[in-house]
Amino acid sequence: MTERLFEGADWDFHTLQRITDACEEVATKDLGLDVYPNQIEVITAEQMLDAYSSVGMPLFYKHWSFGKHFAYHEASYRKGLMGLAYEIVINSSPCISYLMEENTATMQTLVIAHAAFGHNHFFKNNYLFKQWTDADGILDYLDFAKNYVMQCEDRYGRVEVERTLDAAHALMSHGIDRYPGKKKLDLRAEEKRAGRRRQHEEEVFNDLWRTVPAGKSKTRSALSIERRRKLLGLPQENLLYFLEKSAPRLAPWQRELLRIVRHIAQYFYPQSQTKVMNEGTATYVHYRIMTKLHQQGRTSDGNFLEFLQSHTNVVFQPEFDDQRFSGFNPYALGFAMMQDIERIVTRPEDEDREWFPDIAGKNDVMGVLRDVWANYRDESFIAQFLSPKLMRHLRMFHLHDDPEERAGIRVDAIHDERGFRRVRRELARQHDVGYIDANIEVVDVDLSGDRRLILHHHVIKGAQLNETDAKRVLQHLADLWTYDVALIEVDASDKVLREYVVSPRPISAVA
Amino acid sequence: MHIIDRRLNPGGKSLENRQRFLRRAKSLVQGAVKKTSQERDIKDVLEGGEVTIPLDGMHEPRFRRDGGTRDMVLPGNKKFIEGDYLQRSGQGSAKDSGPGEGDSEDAFRFVLSRDEFVDLFLDDLELPDLAKRKIAQTESEGIQRAGYTTSGSPSNISVSRTVRRAMARRIALKRPSKEEIEELESAIAASADEDERLLLLAQLEKLKAKSKRIPFIDPLDIRYRRFETVPKPVAQAVMFCLMDVSGSMSEHMKDLAKRFYMLLYVFLKRRYKHVDIVFIRHTDRAEEVDEQTFFYGPASGGTLVSSALQAMHEIVRERFSPSDWNIYAAQASDGDNSYSDGELAGMLLTDKILPVCQFFAYLEVGESGGSAFDLSDSSLWTLYERLRNSGAPLSMRKVSERSEIFPVFHDLFQRRDTAQEKAAP
C-alpha cells in the first residue's frame, strides 16, 4: 500500500509539501493540466479577512471602503454568520494560493487541489484571462499603484486623493473595455511608461479644447460633428477611459488614479464573466484529485469522508422555494456541468448524440474539458453545453415577470422538449455581463454651449437606473468632468424615458 | 513550488483602512456610540464594544438597474408547466442580489476597541473655560531618582551600594579576610617547630601583601546616587465630587449621581496627565472620603449644602493652589436644602469657590418618572440659577432617568466655543 500523505487532521509544512507534490502528480499526469508555478502561503484568519476586504489582493492601495468591508466581514465572521472562504487564489505568476492555518490536513489538500491546480490552470489557459490580464505584471503593478497613491496623498492631501478615488470607484464598473481591439495589457510596461506619459501629456495640446468656440463662431456642419466625435473617440462606453483622456481640468495625478482604477477593474473583468466556469473547473479538478488520492490509498477513508462533506456543502444547490436560495450557486452549476460533459463524452445517450454531436462518445474527457476551459466564458459555456439531462435533473424553469401583467409571473418555459432551448438561452443570458451591467456610454459633448457631457443609457426591458444611486454616481462624474453632465435614458426606439442633469460641486481644489 | 508561512507577517494590514473608515464615518459612529452608551453601564462603556451604524452614509453608489420586466431561470420546478402563472407574493420570490454586494447592506454592526469607543464618545467634549490651558502647556522641572553613577558629589555617595560593590570585588579577588590572618598569627604563636614557623610567616607575609594590594574599598567601588530632572506637567486637574447623601436622596438618585461622577472621572483621565479627585459627601456636615466610601458607604442625615462647599474651599486652600490646578466641581443633589442655609451657600459660592473654579456643574437628580420636577424649582436650583444669571461659570441640569446621564453629561461639556474659534481668523 502506498504511504499515507498524512494521518488525522494535523499538518505541518512537510505535510503540505507532500500534499502538493501528490496533487501535482495527479494534476499534470492524469488530468494534463498546465499551470503557473505555485506559491502557497499559510495565513491566519485575520489575514484572510484582510485579504477579503481588498478584493483578495495581497497588496492594495489604502482606501476607506476596504476598511468598511473589513469591518463588515469581521463582524459577520465573529457572529458566525459567515464562514471564511477556505482559500483565496490570485491570478498571478507565480499563482498565489492562501491557506488558512485553521484548516485540517484534508481541507488543505482540498484547497491545494482546488486553487493551486484547478483555478491556476483556468487562469493560465482561458482565453479571456490570456487576453485581458497580465499574470506576470499584476503584483508589480499593484505595488506601483499602492506607492503612487501614497505619494499623491503626501503631495496633494488625503482628502483630495480620496475624493478622486471615490469617484473612480463609483464608475469602476464602467471603466472596462469590453471588446479587445488593442494589444494585451502589459502592466509592467504600463508602470514604466506612467511617469513619462504624464509628463508628455502635460505638455501636449488637448484637441478637445481647441474646438471651444472663440471669436467668430464657425458654422458647424454635420460632418464636423461627426469628425469631432471621432476625435474624442465617441461613443465611448469606458467612462473612466474617457475622463482620463478628455476631462478638461483634471490634474495629471488624478488621471493616473483613474487609470489605476481602470486597470484594476479590467484585471477583474474576466473573473466576473467566468464565475461558473472557473469554480466549476476548480471543483471538478479537486474532486478528481481527491478521489484519485483516495484510490491510491494516500488518504484514509475518514479523511475522504471529511472531504466529501465539505465538497457536498460547496456544491449544494437549494431550490428556488428554499429559504437558502439566492440564485444559482456557481460551484454547483459549474461542477454539475463539468461532470455532465464527462458523462456525455464517455457514456452518451441518444439525446446527447443529437445535442452534442462533436463531443458525444469522444472518450477523451480531459481533452474535451481542457478545450472547453480554454475557449468559453459563462455565457457561451452555458449556451453551448447545458444539456437537457441536466436541465431535467435540476428541474430548471424560466419565469417571465412583467410588472404590467396582473395575473402574476408567467412560467415561460420548463424542462421539456419545447422548453430546453429557451431555458438554456435565458440562463446563458443571465450570465452575460454585457447584459447584466447597464449599457451606458458617452455620446457627445456640447462644445458650442456649456460643455455639457451627454451620456445615454440604453434601457433594456424597461429596467431603468436606480434613481438615488444614479444621481450620486453622476455627481461624481460631474465633479471629475467639472461641467454639467446629462444622462438620458432611452429605450430601443430612442424614446427618452428620463433625463438627469447634474452640476459639479464647487471644489476649489479641482483646478 | 514554494510554501511560505505568512502567519507571522504583521497582521492588521487593514488597520489603516479601518481607521480611514472610522474617520469618515465618524459622525455616524459617534451617534451610534452615544446611543449605545445610553443603554449600558459605565463600566461596560469603557470596555468598548459593538455599535451599529446605518450604511447609508457610507454607501458606495454604482449605476444599477431597477424594475422592468425580469426573466429568470430557477432550479427546483415542482409542478409548473408552461403558461402557468405564479402569484406574486409581497416581494419577488427570488432575490437576485448576490451576497456581499453593497446594495443589501443597510446597516451593519462592528466592534470598536475600548480606546476607539471612549475616544469617539468623548471626542467632541471639552472642559469649558480652560483659562489655564496656556499654563497647562508649559511644564516645570521636577527631580527624580535615576539609578547610580560612578561620578558625582560626595553628598550623593550611596554607602550601601558602594560597600556592596567593594565586598563583591574583595570576594572575587580573594582578599584574605581578617579571620584568616588572625588564624595564621595564632598558628605562628603556637608553633614550636622553627621550619614550620618560618613557612607560616612567609605565608602571613604573602597574605598581608595581598590584602594591601587589594584595598578594602577601592575608588572603583564608589557609587553615587543619580538624579534626573524630569519635566513635570502642570496640566493638572482636580475634580471635586460633592454628593448629597442626606435622607432625602433615594438609591435611584444616588445611582444617577455616581454614574455622572464616573463619567466625569473617565473624561478627565483622558484629557489630563494628572487628575486628582476629591470625594466629599455631605449630609448636614461634610467629610472627605475615599472612593470606596463615597460610592458604597452608607450615610444619612439632614442637609446642609454649605458644609460641603466649606469643606471644598478648605481643601482647595490647603492642597490645590488655583494657580497650578484646574479646579472643577460637580455637585449632585436632589436640590433639597434647609432654607436657612441658602444664603450661606450662595456666599461661599460667589466669594470663595466660583472665583477659583474653571467650571462648576450642578446636577439635580430626581426620582424616576421625573414628575416632581414639574412642580416647582428646588431651593438649590433657584439659588444656582440666580448665580448663573449673574454670569458665574456654572452649569446646571436635571436628570431623572439613567439614560439621560449621557446626554446631560454631553450637554454640560459640549465644546462650546468651537463656533467662535472657527470664526476667528
Helix content of chain A: 40-55%
Name the largest protein-protein interface in this structure: A-B, 100 and 65 residues
Provide a count of the helices of chain A. Answer: 22
The strand line-up of the biggest sheet of chain A is 6-7-9-10
Derived structural class of chain B: alpha/beta
**How many helices of chain B in DSSP terms?**
15
As laid out across the biggest beta sheet of chain B, the strand order is: 11-10-9-12-13-14
Helical content class of chain B: 25-40%
Backbone shape of chain A: globular
Low-confidence stretches of chain A: none
* End-to-end distance of chain B: 63 Å
Regions with little confidence, pLDDT below 50 for 5+ residues of chain B: 91-105, 130-138, 418-425
By oligomeric state, this entry counts as heterodimer
What integer is the average pLDDT of chain B?
76
How many strands, what sense, and barrel or not for the largest sheet of chain B?
6 strands, mixed
Relative strand content of chain B: 15-25%
